[in-house]
Amino acid sequence: FQELDSEVIHILLQYDLQNFLVQPFSFAQLLSAIESEQLQKQAISAAANTIEAMASEIMLSLGLPPHLDGFPYIQSCAVYIARNVDDVKVQMKQVYHEAAKCHHSTALRVEKCIRTAINFAYRNQPEKICINNCKPTNTQIILYISEKLKLFEK
């Protein structure tokens, strides 16, 4: 590869270009680059259509931080409810127990980590996560996400 000058780097950064071809290039190189880009986009769109990915998007829109332990627990609980629970009354202890089994943890730890993630989101971005101008409970957040997932599946 040849050296890139600062003007080319500036253009790449300005337009957020991640892939480019350096001249001269052959038609086979162009075709290969296009095919690999299409395969990459198809893989991303297929992954984005899963219920877990949708749960993550909803959680991120609520301001829940993905770096905390509670994030995958909330995701597991919401997906479990969306897939398995049709009743309006949900026994959260059973849901926590199912999430704990998936993550090789305990129901108490699952509940505490979820509460910690919600508290963190409420402290940092209360406008995103508030329900009726109050801090939401674990159950409210999980049920909110699961209801959105049920709508997504239909």
What does this structure look like?
With 154 residues, this protein is mainly alpha-helical. The N and C termini lie far apart (50 Å).
> What would you call the structural class?
mainly alpha
Unreliable residue runs = none
The N- to C-terminal Cα distance equals 50 Å
Radius of gyration (Å): 22 Å
Average of per-residue pLDDT values: 84
Q: Which oligomerization state do the chains in this entry correspond to?
A: single chain
- Helix proportion range: 55-70%
Order of H and E elements: HHHHHHHH
Number of helices: 8
Largest sheet: none
Count of DSSP strands? 0
Give the strand content.
Answer: under 5%
Shape label:
elongated
Can you give keywords for this protein?
154 residues; 8 helices; 0% strand; mainly alpha
Short description:
This protein is mainly α. It is built from eight helices and no strands.
Topology record:
Blueprint: H1 6-14, H2 27-48, H3 51-61, H4 70-84, H5 92-102, H6 107-124, H7 126-129, H8 138-153
Helix pairs in contact: 3-4, 3-8, 4-5, 4-6, 4-8, 5-6
